[in-house]
Amino acid sequence: MSEVMIVNGVECHPIVDKCEGCERTFEKDGVKYCKSYPMPERKWAQKVCNFATHVKLEVEKNGKVNINPLKASKRAARGR
After folding, report:
1. How many CB atoms sit inside 10 A of residue 54's CB?
2. pLDDT per residue as tens digits for the range 52-74
3. Containing domain of residue 55, as a range?
């Protein structure tokens, strides 16, 4: 099993491979840990860790914008 460091009563687990390059990691006794989350493997279970500083999310717009229909009808009524 991997090394677990205890900080203020919380078990901190070592980072996973996907965390390499993140600015929120620190090294202690040759093992890297995350400063923001004690169990990094759980943060990466859902595609991308939201604390990751080295990963940029790309949002697909495809030129389509969602408009609230109620607001659109009010704008049309005002002549905008």
Report:
1. 13
2. 888 887 766 676 777 888 988 98
3. 5-78
